[in-house]
Amino acid sequence: MNPTPTGRLDRDGDRSTLVMVRTFPAPIDDVWASVTEPERLERWIGTFSGDPEEGFVMFRMTFEGQDHEGERMQIRECDPPRRLALTSQVGEQVWFLELDLEETDGVTTVTFSQPDIDPAAIENVGPGWEYYLDRWVTQFGGGDPAVHDFDRDYYPAMKAYYEEQAGS
User: Fold this and answer.
1) Cβ atoms within 10 Å, residue 117
2) Around Cβ 20, how many Cβ atoms within 10 Å?
3) What is the CATH number of the domain that holds 75?
4) Three-state secondary structure of the chain
5) Is the dihedral of CA 152, 117, 6, 34 positive or negative?
6) Across residues 146-168, what is the average pLDDT?
């Protein structure tokens, strides 16, 4: 498998945002459920516990090849089934993550973005999000997300593409 990198780095002054788009041949409510219901989310990236109504959940990635204790995900914005904006903080590292969904004629387009990303980090972060978003699309379509191999197909295979996006 040789996936093609799709991400781009949008710049607005000193602010950089990583953007990736995926499409799903399904209604928006079904795609929304695949990212907001813990048992469905777990099939391709990880799971969460806690009550989202409290404004945060504990998220644990399950496909990192090691045990992750989890991280607190603050829910900055939740507008079902159109927008989900989260903040992840692990130590000093803060990531803003956003999903925007739009349905046209039964096809849902998801725009994933990571605002305020350090362009120097994109060579590692970009391939990681490509991997997880591809796992989501594959799993959603009924396939086995394990067909995606991060070490073989994403990193370092996509590193040069993302270095170019960062202008390095």
Assistant:
1) 21
2) 19
3) 3.30.530.20
4) CCCCCCCEEEEECCEEEEEEEEEECCCHHHHHHHHHCHHHHCCCCEEEECCHHHCEEEEEECCCCCCCCCEEEEEEEEECCCEEEEEEEECCEEEEEEEEEEEECCEEEEEEEEECCCHHHHHHHHHHHHHHHHHHHHHHCCCCHHHCCHHHHHCCCCHHHHHHHHCC
5) positive
6) 93
d(CA 100, CA 32): 10
Q: What is the pLDDT of residue 1?
A: 80
CA distances from 132 to 60, 106, 107, 120, 126 (A): 14, 23, 20, 20, 10
Instruction: Specify the number of domains making up the chain.
Output: 1
Containing domain of residue 113, as a range?
A: 8-166
Interstrand relation of 83-90 and 93-104 (parallel, antiparallel or unpaired): antiparallel
pLDDT band for 155, please (50, 70, 90 cuts): very high
Q: How far is CA 73 from CA 1, 9, 49, 61, in A?
A: 32, 23, 10, 12
Cα separations (Å) of 115 from 11, 21, 153, 156? 10, 14, 25, 23
